[in-house]
Amino acid sequence: MGKMTFEELLAKANAESKRAKPRHEESQLQRVCVRWFRIQYPELAILLFAVPNGGARNKREAGIMKAEGVTAGVSDLILLIPSGGFASLCIEFKTEKGKQQATQKEWQQAAERAGNKYAIIRSFDDFRTEVRNYLPPPMQRKA
């Protein structure tokens, strides 16, 4: 897919969120945000990654993943770039009414104690603002 303008991305995000089933709203938002980030910051794209903690798994597969280090509550995305005195930016996507689970709150506290910034994102505008505020000016670009 070619580069999309900010207006095209925003229109796509709005269209997808209206069509999406409620259980997939966070996923739709996350996909649009990742797409925007990769277009805006291609040189940093590899350092923004998802943590595959969710999804249905059978007991055996869940056991293997836990043994490999999967940890309940870890944020949905991590931007592995130090900035503003933080080691990284941890991003948790929630719907407008979504609430953190206890494991997510515990992980947030641990991540913040370790020197990371943690943000709960509820919209594309939240994400764009958070990223632009987090990254130092030389890395910033216009939408």
Report on the structure:
- A four-stranded mixed sheet has the order 1-2-3-4.
- The two termini are 17 Å apart.
- With 143 residues, the chain is α+β, with helices and mostly antiparallel strands.
- The relative contact order is 0.16.
- The longest helix has 16 residues.
- The protein is globular, with a radius of gyration of 16 Å.
- The model has no long low-confidence stretch (mean pLDDT 86).
- The protein has one domain: Trna Endonuclease, Chain: A, domain 1 (3-Layer(aba) Sandwich), CATH 3.40.1350.
Low-confidence stretches: none
Molecular shape: globular
> Architecture, CATH level 2?
3-Layer(aba) Sandwich
Q: What is the CATH C-level name?
A: Alpha Beta
